[in-house]
Design a protein that fits this description.
The complex is a heterotrimer of chains A (67), B (261) and C (52).
Chain A lengths: L8 H4 L10 H44 L1
Chain B lengths: L24 H9 L1 H6 L5 H8 L5 E2 L1 E2 L4 E2 L1 H12 L3 H9 L13 H4 L11 H9 L24 H14 L2 H8 L8 E5 L4 E5 H10 L2 E2 L2 E2 L6 H6 L11 H10 L9
Parallel strand pairs in B: 1-4
Antiparallel strand pairs in B: 2-3, 4-5, 6-7
Helix pairs in contact in B: 3-4, 4-8, 5-8, 8-10
Chain C lengths: L1 H4 L12 H19 L6 H8 L2
Classes of the chains: A mainly alpha (67), B mainly alpha (261), C mainly alpha (52).
């Protein structure tokens, strides 16, 4: 087990990774993270669609100019 | 080591290549020279590896001036050496104690599984519930756990290890399908960083695996974006457990997401 | 030490099945639960657990 007992034994105990100590707060914190992910996904989709619309617009523009 | 010697390598492949190259050569060498690798990883198979993984206390890549690899990273490397069959990896990821294997335990950890109990459950359930007072922790109803399937895995660091391996070794569609349920597993985990230790969460770690380029001192191979897999009808759009709530907010007023929290 | 673990000259180990991995985890879980709260178990329950 010595490989695990490192020079920073005290430090690792500063972080408490036990679950269910404050269930409501743990859930609320997750909810916030999940909502940020949903928002990020949405923005990515919007950016992707905007990009496609822009490509489409330019193509129409040049076709119109050609005629 | 045989794993590193490309000429002589005759083991299982990942995407047609020697799995060792999933790790950067410098990191690889430090793993192989580490005490943990030599002393704790030699001769492990899929089952005995679980003994080590059950003792993990944090995730992480390499630390300190010497870039010392964490036990987590060493075990991930070991998994890449073993290339376990799919069922074994899923077992590591989603291990649960079945109802009938679990007579002597009726406490909170196991209560969660009731949400997804198999159809044949009934009898054992009655037994355990009789003894427990109705207000027992296990019986607190949902809001705390929107998607019980995301909270499997009694050994959370083993779960992270399996998730990391899946991201490295599996194919994109399977990666998304298998890892995304873990985005609602909000248990706490410790992560060792260059500076010390930091708190993170299983859902956060899994999100990193799905969206970042580099996790735990390892460059993740580039997957096609999820939207592309959806366009090819290989994946359904992901539905968050919070989707209903978000849609309700959207219904009342366009920009729902920012207002919650 | 190496010859204890290795099953052949190649250093290959015997692969574990899904069932073996499951049983191993079950055993580890019980061991962990036992270590975390040994005071609630009487001797009979203890013997029961060790009989696995």
């Amino acid at each position: 087990q010595e490989w695990d007992e490192e020079d920073d034994v005290a430090e690792i105990d500063e972080i408490d990774d036990r679950d269910g100590i404050d269930p409501e707060a743990e859930y609320a914190a997750w909810k916030l993270r999940e909502l940020k992910r949903i928002k990020r996904e949405r923005e990515a989709i919007e950016a992707y669609e905007a990009e496609r619309a822009e490509i489409e617009r330019r193509r129409n523009l040049t076709e119109a100019e050609r005629e | 080591s045989k794993l590193l010697d490309d000429r002589g390598y005759g083991g299982r492949l990942i995407r047609g290549q020697n799995p060792a190259i999933l790790f950067e050569s410098g990191v690889r060498n430090r793993i192989i020279q580490s005490y943990y690798w030599k002393e704790q990883c030699f001769g492990l198979n899929e089952a005995t590896l679980c003994d080590r993984a059950a003792q993990l206390k944090y995730i992480g890549g390499t630390t300190g001036v010497n870039g010392k690899p964490t036990p987590f990273l060493c075990l991930a490397f070991k998994l890449c050496q073993l290339v376990p069959e799919e069922g074994v990896v899923r077992e590591m990821l989603n291990f649960e104690v079945d109802e009938d294997e679990d007579d002597e335990n009726d406490n909170g950890e196991h209560g969660k599984r009731e949400a997804e109990a198999e159809g044949n459950g009934g009898i054992e359930n009655d037994e355990t519930e009789e003894g427990a007072p109705p207000t027992a922790l296990a019986n607190i109803p949902l809001p705390l756990d929107p998607e019980a399937t995301g909270r499997r895995g009694a050994f959370k660091y083993l779960r992270c290890l399996a998730a990391f391996y899946i991201r490295l070794a599996w194919e994109p569609v399977a990666i998304h399908q298998t890892l995304e349920p873990l985005l609602s597993d909000y248990r706490k985990i410790k992560r060792k960083t260059k500076e010390g230790y930091a708190m993170t969460y299983i859902d956060q770690f899994v999100d990193d695996l799905l969206t970042k380029e580099r996790v735990c001192a390892t460059s993740l191979w580039r997957m096609p974006p999820r939207s592309q897999l959806e366009d090819l009808d290989l994946l359904e759009q992901r539905v968050s457990p919070l989707q209903g709530e978000v849609d309700m907010l959207d219904g009342s007023d366009g920009e729902g997401v920012e207002e919650v929290g | 030490r190496q010859h204890l673990v290795a099953t052949g000259q190649t250093g290959e180990v015997t692969r574990a099945t899904v069932e073996e991995v499951h049983q191993r985890l079950l055993w580890l879980k019980r061991k962990m639960d036992e270590e975390s709260k040994p005071e609630v178990l009487d001797l009979d329950a203890r013997l029961e657990m060790h009989r696995e």
